[in-house]
Design goal:
Blueprint (H helix, E strand, L loop, with lengths): L1 H23 L11 E7 L4 H16 L3 E7 L8 E6 L3 H9 L13 E6 L3 E6 L2 H18 L7 E4 L5 E7 L27 H13 L4 E5 L21 H20 L3 E8 L4 H7 L12 H17 L3 E9 L6 H22 L7 E4 L5 H8 L6 E6 L12 H11 L4 E6 L13 H13 L5 E4 L21 H4 L1 H12 L5 H16 L3 H14 L2 H9 L15 H5 L9 H4 L8 H10 L8 H22 L7 H37 L2 H25 L28 H23 L19 E2 L4 E4 L14 E4 L7 E4 L2 H7 L1 E7 L3 E8 L28 E7 L5 E8 L2 E7 L5 E7 L7 E2 L18
Parallel strand pairs: 1-2, 1-3, 3-5, 7-8, 7-14, 8-9, 9-10, 10-11, 11-12, 12-13, 13-14, 21-25
Antiparallel strand pairs: 4-5, 4-6, 15-19, 16-18, 17-21, 19-23, 20-22, 20-24, 21-22
Helix pairs in contact: 2-4, 5-6, 8-9, 9-10, 12-14, 15-16, 16-21, 17-21, 17-22, 20-22, 21-22, 22-23, 23-24
Length: 926
């Protein structure tokens, strides 16, 4: 009995002790010892292996492992190790045997294998140093996702695209005083972020995490900020203290990039020289019509050589066009006799043997011709061309643009697809994984390309900040993380099954906003519905694929009903859109009762409105479960509403435009009256846009110079907000109503018939040339008998300058004159693309195409010369003084000088080659 009593007492004490321990809580229990892992590197490991090991160590420690890093020549046979190295390193070859690992067939360039082996050991084997790095990052990601090292690992990966990179513009939304486009010296005052090492590390880590291997820095003429030349010491653009900072920062950047397997590729334009160099030699910093001269060629070659010698692990990207007259032998000579020799000079001087990449930008040059001539001289060549121009419009490109890409892809160099500017997307967030994946697939299947060059999704000119109005400026790499992650994910591997991708992005977005995967999928659905809106709008209604148009600021009625007046860039419709019809084509077919083809304007109006409604519904379904990053979610949600309202605005305005064009053919005023309600609704939608953006965005477009032309000219940061555009759209509605009233009054004349008489301005012509009166029957060239047969009445009696057409075609046009007051020079461009004729100013290829206000057509089809295409009239504005107007090669007309204060009519005179007139109806809104 005593024993039973004692046993009962002992049991009670034991239970009491358990209760006491339970009361103390789980924290009193002894902690589980951390699992130990040793990361083993080869001795004297490359910096990329060290960086990869450190990133893997950090991930393991965050998961609760105790981790050390060591270096060994050979495998020790110990347990709990992670051995990393190239497949050919002795450490890895011995480890495979010692731990009975079967790595299998080796992957290709930058590839890796991750293999579980005996003794709780993992082998990360790379084809090269970058492959090892990517293997470390992959295992680190798995540990982060799973909270531990997985069992029975067996993974082999390699990238599909050879070059995968992003770019940063070392440029600004505005011009610096005394300078023009692209001219931005590297200084702390202009680019404080350039000297922020922590920001660079964050950005480079992002590139590495996304497996990107190149970083492009865009600038017009960077060399004068980074090198000092013995023969041209005066060319340096910065003071000594800044020069030293630039040297230190550039070395830091290139070394940190090399750790992460990233080539820094410095982009530059040709032919631009530094401002001090230009002033020393009394020349312009850039002049598109300037021929190659020995002085500039020598300066450029020596600048490149000094740059290559001074900064290893740096490549070059060359834009032959834009600041140098386009296609021709000059491009071939400049690339092969100046650029490549400069690189080779720098390599020889430094003793480097690895050829840095040289990327030839296909913009405004005959890239196949240039590359064919260059391949015998240099082996590490790449070509680059814009995927959808300077926008994102389609994942089914076609036509002549697709043929150019296929030609470049078929040459003995790697072709890179440039996702450029994204002028139709900014400033709103873009996260359509579906559209992006299909675009990368098209890069392979339609273009045959094998590289990616990715621009920021928005605010390119305002790096590193976004346009969001927030308590502190948001960084692009934070806000647009999904943009970078999606493009790079599919550049690594494009053909990933769609259901799995929906789940992947659902988890990523769910984690970001503290929701489950289902709610994350709703956020993805919102992104993907909204992601169809701006591409469809631009490809059916736009004027250009270039950054001279800000799609999200809307379009004028005149731009919708008469796009040719605004320099319509037809490649947008012919190559960067599915087969379909422009608004003016659709209206003409309707009037003639003809069958429609492909994607039509009314179809897109209906579709974008449906996408907008679906995007808003999806984001609202996700909203109740958001528990993290609520401020960012609110901004995403607002973006969905903005894009839905943008779709409504365009849809209603296009419906109004189609009614207006119906009137063009019917001359029935009731057709115009039917346009009024739709135009009213579009203005109401625009008011909603103003309300949604006034407290959430600083601006719509980050390029805030005269290059911005559509919907309004954006000089000195004007017309960059939605509120600025509201009165413009309200005025259009008012003008339409007034025009309808005028048409109902029998004796009233439309505005297009009110003649503006242009008067000659007194100038002193310094160029030796004859003059003529701009009237019918007058010969316009000094070396032909071609005469004026028809002209717009405004031009009658102006004093034209008679030049030699052959000399214009051979040498270009130089017009020197003196004036005591500001004047406009009226230049006539033949409306046909041909080497015989001077190309009209085109901002898509020439960033200086509006330096004198010349980009817009003033009088379209305003004059006819016998045997020639109709002539469009442009105006160049000059201040008082002595000037030289240099124009590139090709015949054109100098139609006279008028006072700069003289208002010029802007309309289509409609004179065809036969002299017959077909009136446009833009006047309805003026």
């Amino acid at each position: 009995m005593r024993w039973s009593l004692w046993k009962c007492l002992a049991t009670s004490c034991f239970l009491l002790g358990c209760l006491l321990l339970s009361a103390l809580g789980a924290s009193a229990a002894p902690a589980k010892p951390a699992q130990a892992r040793t990361i083993v590197l080869p001795k004297m490991a490359h910096v990329r292996l060290r960086y990869g090991a450190e990133r893997l160590q950090a991930a393991l420690q965050a998961a609760g492992y105790k981790v050390s890093i060591t270096e060994q020549d050979k495998a020790s046979g110990k347990s709990n190790q992670i051995l990393i190295g190239r497949a050919t390193d002795a450490l890895l070859t011995q480890a495979a045997t010692a731990y009975h690992a079967t790595p299998g067939q080796a992957p290709g360039k930058e590839g890796f294998t991750i293999t579980s082996a005996d003794k709780n050991t993992v082998l990360i084997s790379g084809t090269d140093n970058s492959g090892v790095l990517y293997g470390c990052l992959e295992l680190a990601e798995q540990v982060k996702a799973q909270g531990k090292i997985g069992e029975k690992l067996s993974l082999k990966e390699q990238p599909e695209m050879v070059m995968r990179g992003a770019c940063i513009g070392i440029q600004k939304p505005y011009y610096l005083p005394g300078r023009t486009v692209y001219e931005y010296p590297y200084t702390p005052e202009v680019f404080p972020w350039l000297y922020d090492k922590a920001l660079w590390v964050k950005y480079l880590d992002m590139l590495a995490d996304n497996r990107m291997n190149s970083l492009y820095l865009w600038n017009g003429h960077p060399f004068a900020s980074l090198v000092r030349l013995k023969d041209y010491p005066y060319a340096v653009e910065v003071d000594d203290a800044t020069f030293k900072k630039n040297e230190e920062m550039y070395r830091f950047l290139t070394e940190e990039a090399d750790k992460r397997g990233i080539w820094v590729i410095q982009m530059f334009y040709n032919i631009i020289v530094s401002k001090p160099f230009a002033e020393h030699h009394n020349i312009k910093t850039q002049d598109r019509a300037r021929p190659i001269v020995p002085l500039i060629a020598d300066y450029t070659r020596k600048s490149i050589a000094a740059f290559v010698e001074k900064y290893p692990n740096v490549g070059l990207m060359v834009a032959l066009g834009e600041a140098m007259e386009g296609v021709g032998q000059d491009d071939v000579d400049w690339f092969n006799k100046t650029i490549i020799p400069g690189v080779l000079d720098g390599l020889k001087a430094s003793g480097q043997t690895e050829l840095p990449p040289i990327v030839l930008r296909a913009h405004d040059t005959d890239a196949p011709r240039v590359i064919n001539a260059a391949l015998p001289l240099y082996k590490n060549l790449y070509t680059e061309a814009k995927f959808n121009g300077e926008a994102l419009t389609t994942y089914t490109p076609r036509g002549s643009w697709a043929e150019l890409h296929r030609t470049l892809s078929g040459m003995n160099s790697v072709h890179i697809e440039n996702v450029h500017i994204l002028a139709n997307l900014e400033p709103f967030r873009y996260g359509s994984a579906d559209f992006i994946q299909k675009s990368v697939q098209a890069m392979h299947s339609i273009y045959g390309a094998n590289g990616l060059h990715l621009y920021p999704q928005a605010s390119y000119w305002d790096w590193p900040y976004t346009a969001d109005k927030a308590p502190e400026r948001l960084l692009q790499i934070d806000r647009d993380w999904m943009w970078y992650k999606a493009w790079s994910r599919y550049a690594w591997k494009a053909d990933r099954p769609r259901p799995a991708e929906v789940s992947y992005w659902g988890r990523e977005l769910g984690q970001l906003f503290g929701t489950d995967e289902a709610a994350g999928k709703q956020v993805l659905e919102a992104y993907e519905q909204a992601g169809e809106i701006e591409p469809k709008l631009l490809r059916r209604y736009g004027i250009t694929d270039g950054n001279r148009q800000t799609l999200t600021l809307g379009m004028l009625m005149g731009q919708l009903i008469n796009p040719k007046r605004y320099g319509l860039f037809t490649l947008l419709y012919e190559s960067e859109a599915p087969e379909g019809e422009m608004i003016i084509e659709y209206a003409e077919k309707e009037a003639k009762g003809q069958k429609h083809i492909g994607e039509t304007p009314p179809q897109v109006a209906d579709e974008v409105q449906a996408h907008g409604k679906a995007a808003v519904a999806a984001i609202e379904r996700a909203a109740p479960s958001v528990t993290k990053n609520q401020a960012e979610f609110a901004r995403v949600k607002n973006d969905m509403y903005c894009q839905a309202v943008l779709a409504d605005f365009y849809a209603e305005k296009v419906r109004a435009a189609l009614q207006v064009l119906r009137y063009k053919y019917s001359k029935n005023v009731t057709d115009l009256e039917a346009a009024v309600p739709a135009l009213e609704r579009s203005v109401q939608h625009w008011q909603k846009m103003v309300d949604l953006t006034k407290d959430t965005y600083l601006y719509a477009n980050s390029m805030q110079t005269a290059q911005r032309k559509i919907p309004m000219r954006g000089v000195d940061a004007t017309y960059i907000t939605w509120a600025e555009m509201l009165p413009v759209y309200q005025r259009e509605l008012t003008n339409l109503r007034h025009s309808i009233d005028s048409l109902k009054a029998v004796k009233a004349l439309p505005a297009s018939q009110k003649l503006v008489v242009l008067r000659n301005a007194p100038v002193t012509l310094l160029t030796k040339a004859g003059t003529y009166s701009v009237v019918a029957g007058q010969a316009v060239f000094a070396d032909t008998t071609a005469q004026i047969t028809a002209l717009a009445p405004e031009l009658a009696g102006l004093k034209g300058v008679r030049l030699s057409a052959n000399q214009q075609r051979k040498n270009g046009t130089e017009l020197r004159f003196t004036t005591t007051k500001p004047v406009q020079v009226l230049v006539g461009y033949f409306n046909q693309k041909s080497p015989r004729y001077l190309p009209a100013p085109q901002l898509e290829i020439d960033a200086t195409a509006n330096d004198y206000g010349q980009a817009d057509v003033k009088i379209a089809n305003g004059l006819v010369v016998a045997g020639q295409p109709p002539v469009n009239v442009h105006a160049y504005t000059f201040k008082a003084g002595t000037h030289t107007l240099n124009l590139s090669r090709g015949a054109c007309l100098i139609l006279g000088f008028v006072d700069a204060s003289q208002p010029l009519p802007a309309y289509n005179a409609g004179l065809g080659s036969s002299g017959e007139q077909a009136k446009e109806i833009d006047w309805l809104f003026q």
